[in-house]
Amino acid sequence: MNLDFLKTIFSKVGPLEWWQALIIVFVIIVTIFVGKYWQNVIGWFGTWFTGNKRSCSDCIMIIFGKREIYETKKRELDKTLKRQMNFAEQKLLTLQSKMINYYSDKLYASTSLDVVNDNQIVEFRMFSHLIHTTLHILIKDEIRRSFKENGFDDLTDSEFNTYLKDKHSTLFSVLKQQIVNLYPPPGSKMIIPMDSVNKYLNSIKDDIREMVSEIFIEAKEIKLDDLKKLETLKKSFTKDMENFVTKHEN
Known about the structure:
The protein is an all-alpha fold. It has 2 domains: 3-75, no CATH class; 80-239, no CATH class. It is 83% helix and 0% strand. The chain has 9 helices and no strands. Helix 6 (118-149) runs antiparallel to helix 7. The chain is elongated, with a radius of gyration of 37 Å. Mean pLDDT is 78; it is low at 33-51.
């Protein structure tokens, strides 16, 4: 403690009895202590006045803990898009496998020999790469963009059915146009000509329609389910906080 500070105080108040000086020194010490450790002092007085009830600092820590639990659960529910895309990717992989198997069977049937030749290998790799990039880049990006809009979960059944038809038409057009644009054109001496590929695409149009419906129906259910869980979580947190405050007010 600064002795000059004490001298100044005593010089202002004049001569004091010993017990008066002791009181002044005690008040100064308590003032300094409370100023430095005011948070702990509040906590100690809170505990002293309320008996077994928690101190203010304990209450703050409990509230922060409950808030962190709420935020952690909320972050999990915010991963709706990831869950929607996981399902969509599974369906795209299934379609990719179906289309590549078709092409592989056509190549195998194009020769009477059991030995695969270099041309067949080149064409198979070309088609596999084309289908993979088309489905998992172009189509996948279009599906993700649609999910991010997240407006379809508010549609009525009739509106949603119309939405599905539009999405199927859009995705099928993108898929077919990409393959037509990048597949070697007629006259390029391909083992599997463009006409055969085009006929195949038209033959699986209904399969693609079904896949698109499954993807967006599942996405809608995931979104609605997550919204319901989030609302329940919010209500639970609010009620938990109200009960906590009420308990510590009484």
